[in-house]
Specification:
Elements (H helix, E strand, L loop, with lengths): L1 H4 L6 H26 L19 E2 L10 H9 L8 H4 L2 E2 L27 E3 L5 H27 L11 H7 L1 H10 L2 H10 L1 H33 L7 H29 L3 E3 L12
Antiparallel strand pairs: 1-2, 3-4
C-alpha cells in the first residue's frame, strides 16, 4: 500500500516482492550448498578417529617445488565431487619410521585450517558425498527458485496469464515430447498389463516405479529444463516447471536420506586429514 501512495505503478510492488522472496530462497540454497561443499575438519570427531595410524607419503614429483606440495597434489587429483585417490596424491612412502620419528606427532598449522587441506577428503569410494550432493542440491533448488519466480511474475501480467499452460495443454502443445516421455516410462504397456493381468502388474509395479523415478530425474526433467530455457517457452512451461522441479527435489531428498542411512549402516565412511611434514623428509 505504501508503494502505491508514493507513485509506484500497479503490480510493481508485487513483482518486487516475488523477486526479493526468490532471492532470499536462493540465498538459503547457497548457504546450504556452501555448508556441504566446504565441509571441513570441524565436522569430524577428532577425539575418536576411526583409524589411529598415520601414513607418511611423498607427493608427485611435479609438486615438489610448490609452496605447499600437498595442496598441489590434492588440487591435481581431486575436484568438485570426486573422491581423493590416495595412491596418486601420495605416490610413495617417506623414508621415515613414523613410530620412532615425528611423523606421528607432527603439529597441524592453523594456516592449513583455512585452505583445501582442512576440507573433508573422501577415501576408498568414487565420489565425495558432501561435494556431490552440494552441487546436485544447488542445481535443483536453483531451478525450482527460478521456475517459481518466472511463474509468479507471469501471473502478475494479465496478458500472460492465458499463455501459462496447464498439464493437459502442454500435452497437446508438445505431443512428440509427451509421447516420448510416456514411451520411455512404459506407461502404455503397464496400463494394458494392469487391465489384462493384474497380479503380474502388481509384481512388476515396484521395479517399474523405480525405473520411472530414474528416468524422470535423469532424462525427462533435464529435457524439460532445456525446453524451458532454450526454446522460448518460459511463459508456457512455467507452471509445469514448478511442478516438475518440486518432484525432482522431493525424489532427490528421499534418495539422499535413504542413501545416507544405508551408507551409515553398511559402509565404513573414511575421511582423511592431511598436513605437510617437511621436517621429516622433503615433500612429505
Amino acid at each position: 500500500m505504501w508503494a502505491r501512495r508514493i507513485g509506484v505503478p500497479p503490480l510493481w510492488p508485487s513483482r518486487i516482492k516475488v523477486v526479493i522472496l526468490c532471492l532470499v530462497i536462493l540465498t538459503f540454497v547457497y548457504s546450504f550448498f556452501a555448508y556441504l561443499h566446504d565441509a571441513n575438519v570441524n565436522y569430524l570427531e577428532l577425539s575418536a578417529p576411526k583409524e589411529s595410524g598415520i601414513t607418511c607419503g611423498r607427493v608427485p614429483e611435479k609438486c615438489w617445488n610448490d609452496a605447499s606440495p600437498l595442496a598441489c597434489g590434492i588440487k591435481e587429483y581431486s575436484w568438485g565431487f570426486t573422491s581423493l585417490p590416495i595412491d596418486k596424491v601420495l605416490t610413495s612412502a617417506c623414508p621415515v619410521e613414523y613410530l620412532l620419528q615425528s611423523c606421528s606427532n607432527v603439529s597441524h598449522p592453523l594456516s592449513s585450517l583455512h585452505t583445501d587441506l582442512a576440507k573433508l577428503h573422501t577415501l576408498n569410494r568414487y565420489t565425495n558425498p558432501f561435494g556431490g550432493w552440494a552441487y546436485l542440491y544447488f542445481i535443483m533448488m536453483a531451478c525450482l527458485g527460478v521456475s517459481i519466480m518466472a511463474h509468479d511474475l507471469c501471473l502478475l501480467v494479465e496478458d500472460l496469464r492465458p499463455r501459462i499452460h496447464s498439464l493437459r495443454v502442454v500435452q497437446a502443445d508438445m505431443p512428440f515430447v509427451w509421447s516420448m516421455s510416456c514411451g520411455i516410462q512404459f506407461l502404455w504397456p503397464m496400463g494394458r498389463l494392469q487391465e489384462k493381468a493384474k497380479p503380474l502388474w502388481l509384481l512388476l509395479w515396484l521395479p517399474w516405479a523405480c525405473w520411472r523415478i530414474v528416468v524422470f530425474m535423469f532424462l525427462i526433467y533435464p529435457l524439460y529444463v532445456a525446453l524451458f530455457l532454450l526454446t522460448g517457452r518460459i511463459v508456457r512451461l512455467s507452471r509445469m516447471m514448478v511442478f516438475l522441479s518440486g518432484l525432482e527435489c522431493m525424489f532427490a531428498s528421499v534418495i539422499y536420506v535413504l542413501s545416507t542411512i544405508i551408507i551409515e549402516a553398511t559402509y565404513n565412511e573414511v575421511y582423511a586429514l592431511f598436513w605437510n611434514a617437511p621436517n621429516l623428509a622433503p615433500n612429505c
